[in-house]
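WARN retry 2 of 3 for item q-0093 after timeout on previous attempt; input resubmitted unchanged.
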Amino acid sequence: MKKRNLLAAGFLAFSVVTAGFCFPYGADAAAAGETYKEGAVVPADKASAVRNAAREKAMASYYITDGEKFDKAVSLLKGLDPEVTGLEPGVRYSFRMDKTLTGDYFYHVKAFRPGSSNTAGDYLLAKDDSCAYRRFPGENRTELMAGTTDKLLEKTEIYALYRKIPMETPIRVFVRVPGNIPYTLSVTSLNENMISVSEDESGQPVIFGIGRGKADVLAEVTIGGFSKSKKVNYIIMDDKDLEQEENRSSGGGFPIGIGIGIGIGRGHHHGHRGGVVIGI
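OK item q-0093 returned
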């Protein structure tokens, strides 16, 4: 794995000579862009040109194709090992960077093959220069290209989506990582008389309340050689507790936070993504 100094070196390795990313739509697109209006009626044979012009116009609203941050990102990608970036030396790729940070932490950059809109590479570059990832959308895979993950873990959240849980119902500790970077999660019961821990069919750790009252688990998230842990608190409730909570609700039915809800776990464990989880 490359260290952070290699990541910094990547920014200085190449000077960037790149044109702003654009679609090769030609004069028809330019003409359509000058006259394009929302809801306008045009001859059918001009519809594609209008569509392309609208996409070009939208580029300025959602993407960056020049400037200091853009140049720095492209310089980094060109300075890294082509075997990890997938970018062949000497090829004049065009690049595009999202204006909005992914997970409020990563610059999302795409590389495109010369003269086309075919993607050659999809990347996440940490805004603090600590790490860089390559994404493989078609393979549902993300790989660390350079840097270290300690700063990424500082931004990672570990939490209980529901603190009050019904006895003997599978519950999952939730984890939020910027950019949905894959991670490994392990959970340890700190009071085995109150909470047990097992795995579901996908290998995800799940907890079960086996005794009424308050209890804690220790959740540990590992990414790229670094780990972060947090103690997560739960209140385990039996049927009578749940009935009393319901009776205390003023409007009838389930009170907020007590009704059974179904959420999609977004975590990973041993390379697997989260599944359905039931919480209270």
